[in-house]
Amino acid sequence: MGKGGNSEDAVSGKEHGEENMAAWLLGIKTLKIQPYILPSLGPHDVKVRIKAVGICGSDVHHFKTMRCANFIVKKPMVIGHECAGIIEEVGSEVKNLVVGDRVALEPGISCNRCSLCRNGQYNLCREMKFFGSPPTNGSLANQVVHPSNLCFKLPDNVSLEEGAMCEPLSVGIHACRRANVGPETNVLIMGSGPIGLVTMLAARAFGAPRIVLVDVDDQRLAIAKDLGADDIIRVSTNIQDLDEEVAKIQSTMVTGVDVSFDCVGFNKTMSTALNATRAGGKVCLVGLAQSEMTVPLTPAAAREVDIVGIFRYRNTWPLCLEFLRSGKIDVKPLITHRFTFSQKDVEEAFETSARGGNAIKVMFNL
C-alpha cells in the first residue's frame, strides 16, 4: 500500500467505507490504481475530492522513462499535478474556504523561508515539493491533502476541467510576464503543442496584436490556426533549412518579431527564435527538451536580443481564473480526450497522450 507522508502521521483516507485510491507509477509504462494513504490534515490544510486531472508532458516523460530532466522516479509515486476538485474537509485554522467549495490546486509547496521564497520567486525554491515530481506524490487520486493557500476557489462559470487547466495555462502566463508581452508586442511561438498553445492564448489575453506559430506538424498547426493564430508556418527538422525559414518568418512578421517563445527547446527551435527576433527584442525559453544546446548567441548579443527563461510559474492562479471567468481565454477547445478513473482508462489515457498526434490535453474525470 502506498503512503503520502510518514506512516505514523497518515490517515486512511476512508470516507463512509470508501478507500482512497490513486494512480501509482511503478515502473516504465506501468501504472496501477492502488490504495493511497493520505498525510494527516494540518490546521492550514484542506482535503480535496479530486474531480479533474490533466496529463502533462512531464507526466508522459515519467510514464515512458521514469524521469523528466533531472527528476528521476526512484520509488513508486502517485502521478499527476494538473487538477481541480471539491473541498471535503478543512483544517482548524482555514478561514478562506469551506466544505463544498470548488477549487483549482496550485501543485507546488515551497519552504516559505529561503531567500528566493522571501523575494517572491517561490517557484525556484530548492525545497519545493511539487505534485507528481519525484519524490512527491501527485494528484491523480480520489482525494489529496493540500495547503489551503494553494487552493483557489473557482468562479461560478468556470468548470472543474477549466480549473485543472489553470496549471498549463500558468506556464503561458508566467512566460508572457517574463517577456513583458503587451498590446504592442508581436509574438513568435516555436511549437504548437499544449504549452505553445496556452502561451498563444496567454499572449493574446495580454494584448499581443499579432501571433505566429511555427511547427513541424501540419495537424498541430491547423489546431493553432483554429484557436486564433494569425499565421502558421511549417518548418522542417533540418538545421540546414534554418536561414530560409528565418527569412520566411521575418517576411510574415513585416514589422518584426518583438518576442519569441521557444516552447520546444531544441537547438534548431532556439536558433530560429534567436535569429528571427528583431534587434532589441526578447527570446523566452519555455520548453526544455534538451539539457544543453549549441545556438548562435554572439549574433543575438550583437543585436541586444535579451534571453530569459522560465521554470514553472508563480502567482498566476488568480489571473488565470480571471481570464477564464471573463472569457478572455477559452481553454475548453484544448481538451481533446476524456477518460474515467479506471485501470483500463488510466493506461489508455497515458498511451493516448504519449502518442501525441491530435491529442492536445487528455483529461481525467473522477
TrEMBL record:
<keyword id="KW-0862">Zinc</keyword>
<dbReference type="InterPro" id="IPR013154">
    <property type="entry name" value="ADH-like_N"/>
</dbReference>
<dbReference type="GO" id="GO:0008270">
    <property type="term" value="F:zinc ion binding"/>
</dbReference>
<keyword id="KW-0520">NAD</keyword>
<dbReference type="InterPro" id="IPR045306">
    <property type="entry name" value="SDH-like"/>
</dbReference>
<protein>
    <recommendedName>
        <fullName>Enoyl reductase (ER) domain-containing protein</fullName>
    </recommendedName>
</protein>
<dbReference type="GO" id="GO:0016616">
    <property type="term" value="F:oxidoreductase activity, acting on the CH-OH group of donors, NAD or NADP as acceptor"/>
</dbReference>
<dbReference type="InterPro" id="IPR020843">
    <property type="entry name" value="ER"/>
</dbReference>
<dbReference type="InterPro" id="IPR011032">
    <property type="entry name" value="GroES-like_sf"/>
</dbReference>
<dbReference type="Pfam" id="PF00107">
    <property type="entry name" value="ADH_zinc_N"/>
</dbReference>
<dbReference type="InterPro" id="IPR036291">
    <property type="entry name" value="NAD(P)-bd_dom_sf"/>
</dbReference>
<dbReference type="Pfam" id="PF08240">
    <property type="entry name" value="ADH_N"/>
</dbReference>
<keyword id="KW-0479">Metal-binding</keyword>
<dbReference type="InterPro" id="IPR002328">
    <property type="entry name" value="ADH_Zn_CS"/>
</dbReference>
<dbReference type="InterPro" id="IPR013149">
    <property type="entry name" value="ADH-like_C"/>
</dbReference>
<keyword id="KW-0560">Oxidoreductase</keyword>
<comment type="similarity">
    <text>Belongs to the zinc-containing alcohol dehydrogenase family.</text>
</comment>
<feature type="domain" description="Enoyl reductase (ER)">
    <location>
        <begin position="27"/>
        <end position="364"/>
    </location>
</feature>
